[in-house]
Amino acid sequence: MTTAISTSPTMVQRRVWPWIVFLSYGVLLSVHLWNGFDFGSFFQSGVRIATPLLLAALGELIVEKAGLINIGIEGIVLMGAFGGFAAAYQLDSLWIGVGAGMLAGLLLAIMFAFLCVTLRNDQIVIGAALNFLAIGATGLLYQIYYASSGSTHTLEPFQEFELPWISGIPIIGPALFSQTALTYLAILITLVFVLLNLRTRIGFHLEAVGEHPRAADAAGIPVHRVRWAAVLIEGLLGGLAGASLSLASSNTFNEEMSNGRGYIALAIVIFGRWNPLGVLGASLFFGAVTALQLSLQATDIDWLRSNYPYLQMLPYLLTLMVLTFSIGKARAPSAMGKHYHRE
Amino acid sequence: MRIILRLLLLTLLWISPTLAAEGFKVGLLTPGPISDNGWNAGAYEGLMKIKETMEAKVSHVQVRSPAEHEEHFRSYGEDGFDLVFGHGFEFQDAARRVGRDFPDTFYITTSGNTVTKNVGAIVFELEEATYLLGRLAAGMSKSGKVGLVGGMEIPSVESTFIAFEAGAKSIRSDCTVLRSYIGSWEDTALAREATLAQINRGADFIFHNADAAGAGVFQAVTESKSKGVYAFGSNKNQNSEAPDSILASAVIDIPGALLKIAKEVKAGEYEAGVTRLNIQSGVITLEMNEGLKDRVSEEILEDLKAVEEKIRVGELEVPRGDF
Question: What architecture is the A50-151+181-326 domain classified under in CATH?
């Protein structure tokens, strides 16, 4: 009897969720149709904003799963943005740019892995140092090669690619199915992560190394090699995030254009509870709230206009609130940030 | 490790303002990258002009935080610089504090009102040009909605927006002026989204004052070309940045202004004060994009010319921020 009662809330939740989604879609659709406010473009903007955040957060997720913490993700994103832009601009190919951006991110990741996994330096200090290195290096190269000419260098960015049929659905169509190739790629990578996270060997190894490296080692899992691999993957994903910033979200590189997105990614990993689907949800939430604050700023309501700093705060404030009040346990990998010494 | 050290060293060398040589020495601090083809690029261009025409030793540093304003002002003072420009309203406090300790160095901020014996300000009255842009926008807008996108809300930026809005309402009192701040001078991606949000609300003429992030505004406007949306450039002639979409730019001749001040300082003629530069002194201009000029009606062009003349002779005072 007691078991039946205790399982019923989840049953109710399962039955209620589709209705909530359905109803809110109905509400949005009627406002969309009657008021003329284009919710399609609004959510499209939210997903666009979320894309680089999602990619960077997935990279950070895998590193933290492996028991490391790399705040240098901000620098990795910046390197990716510059590498992606420079290669795409010089060689006139966006996809080469994407590859180059990933390699640029990889470069910084290799430094992190060598300094923190092999040499076991303090991860926070090295991460912070790498961020400064990335700001300095990209700034220097940008000034040498591009800034001196006096005019900004732009390229033709990734265009939105409308999936046939489904992009025609009101609101959902433009939001999810009329995006650039990099957004689809990001969602695909998320799904790969979900599959890996389920019962696969790679998922288990990662989990073991992040939770109890000594036990993992005893079981024959090469701890340092797994951690190296995780950091390298973060480099590639963070670089991809940067490339999407300079090649899809905008059409140029700017010094410090990452503007804290790497740090937001750190928060998104926590918000998403070290779970790929959670990270996807958290990124979309953050993107949507950012789109909301921009949309609210763009009204002619006076008190909104004069209090716009509160609107700018909104994405951070809401994230904080969700983190504080969300029930259920969220636990970081036990060995996160700790070195592993093999004795 | 060695690579990191070398890169770090290189970075240090690059930001180091120390110059040992004697002669007339001029320093410049910019709040953002000089690759913005706008506010900061103009100042750097001015510094290069000073270097070439006056054979001065020059140095430039891009500061990243307010704490660095004072630090770099001070190191310029210690190195015996004759003249240091702090490029923006936000440099005033540091100029006042550091100026006391280095009486032989002139600290000049571009915008502001802080004046001591060796601290002065140049005020670019860009509002005169943005007022004209406001008239142009409201005169041409089909939706009756125009938009403003700013980097951060500092008084000198806000003031150009106030003038723009006043200009727009002087043509069309029911004109709606949207205003967004993105909170950054570098985030092009966010600037693009902010602009698209305004376009989504129906704005069809967008003026930006967001320095390097302005590239995102131009991108958003260009991709919305089919909706008949146009942009305006700021601080420098940016018409070539998006030749199909930028109708006109509100331009400051920053290089000329900096050179003029440097010459005065070198000759010992400069007296610390607030130097106001405007349409009348030829430093502020409104530059139309010749390629798009045919989209503007004769009537509006005539009106712009007439109002500009009124401003020049002092018949019309443009509303601006109080700072």
Answer: Orthogonal Bundle (1.10)
